[in-house]
Amino acid sequence: MASAAFEAVQSELERSASMDRWTAQGAIRLALMDAGLESSSVTSAQMKVVVDRLLPKQLQSQKVSDVPGVCEKIQRALMLLGDDAGAESPERVFQRMAS
Amino acid sequence: MIGREIEDSDRSNDALAIASGALKRRAGITDFQRIMVAISALCLLAYSVGSVAVGIRLLLRARVTRGVPELLAGLTYLCAPGIGYPLQVVGAQLPMRAVAVPMNVAGECLIVFGLSCFLFFTVTVFRPSARWAKWSAWLGTLALLYVGIVINYAAITYSNPAESQAHVRPAVATVLTVLALAWGWTALEGLRYYRMMKKRMALGLADPVVTNRFLLWGLNGLTSMGWLSVSVLVFLAGGNLATSPLVVSATSGGGFANTIFLLLIFMPPAAYTRWIERSARAPQLATV
User: Fold this and answer.
1) CATH code matching the domain that covers B15-287, chosen among 1.20.1070, 2.20.28, 3.55.50, 3.40.50
2) Nearest to residue A93, comparing CAs of B232, B42, B156, B217?
3) CB nearest A36 (choices: B189, B199, B204)
């Protein structure tokens, strides 16, 4: 199951870049893989960095027009989402156990 | 006649020399074994004390955070290597069955419970939504329960160690398989997540200290695989795992290494944390 941040980016890509559901998911998953993140636990704060640093490369390879504009819209959508701090992940568990 | 006596005397002197050499050699082996037993005992003590400390600390954390992973890991380290394994090792050395059998039974029960908690820790942390992982943990738990029942039945029923060992061989093969799979799984998950965390670190999305914990967790799994492979080899050669000095040495030595990993993961000294943070900053400064 994908996180809220993942679904927000996917919806925005479908809307702004006219991508179909599977292409949008594939582009995000490839960017997340490059960042070492998982679709099920990625938070909006992490997704903002991915959209800023890694997603543009994936969108360019998909021949999306106006990549900076699309990324700007995605960032705005993520800001509206807020931070989903409740998501559990191995990183949080290992951080918590020794603190 | 005198010549024969001299010859006999020479022969007896030769025999004495050989016997004396053999005795010296035997004494040498005994000394070596004694040193190995002492080192193993110290390692076992460190492993148990370290595991108890980590287990208690994790259980205290679980009380505060209400986190299931902390609870499972705490129970694992307190029950299996902290109390269960030392009870079994000490129980196996005791001649009095009235004391040894209850110690063995209690130790085996704690080991089965602790290892089952460990399987569910891996599932809860690394594969919470994977059905195959949950099934694997349940299957592993069932296999461990079978092992516990067979080993405890043998400990209670047979007073002759050879008879008992013959009875428990299938159970020992089962526990070795479950342990190999469990530690292999731990190593894979730890190192896989470490690789992911390193990518996150490059983007400034991960803490270097937490990243290092995954490396240590993976190495913890690999070390356990190492000492387990010694047990597998001794088992295949027909040896008794409870009394084999090689197995006890490898397990205690490996356990000692595991203790260091566990302490660095769950109770890291401030100096180690600072060193990891400095090491992570160094490449960044080099690129500025």
Assistant:
1) 1.20.1070
2) B217
3) B199
pLDDT score of B70: 95
How far is B272 from B254, CA to CA, in rounded Å? 21
Closest residue of A to B124, CA-based? Answer: A90
What is the reported pTM? 0.83
Q: What is the pLDDT of residue B19?
A: 43
The Cα of A1 is separated from the nearest Cα of chain B by a number of Å equal to: 8
In eight-state DSSP terms, residue A89 is -
Q: Provide the mean pLDDT of chain B.
A: 86
One-letter identity of residue B286: A
CB B184, CB B225: distance < 8 Å = yes
| Contact yes or no for A93 and B67 at CB 8 A | yes
What SS3 string covers A41-70?
CCCHHHHHHHHHHCHHHHHHHCCCCCHHHH
Among candidates B128, B203, B210 on the partner chain, residue whose Cβ is nearest the Cβ of A94: B210
Neighbours of B79 (CB within 10 A): 24
Cβ(B119)–Cβ(B79) under 8 Å? no
Instruction: List chain B domain ranges.
Output: 15-287
| Distance in angstroms (rounded) separating the CA atoms of residues B173 and A1 | 38
DSSP letter for each residue of B232-259:
HHHHHTT--TTT-HHHHHHHHHHHHHHH
Closest to A49 (Cβ–Cβ): which among B65, B129, B205? B205
Per-residue pLDDT band for B11 (boundaries 50, 70, 90) equals very low
- What are the DSSP E strand ranges found in chain B? none
**CB-based contact A96 B67, cutoff 8 Å:** yes
pLDDT digits (tens, 9 = 90+) for A62-74: 888 899 999 999 9
- Return the domain boundaries, chain A: 4-97
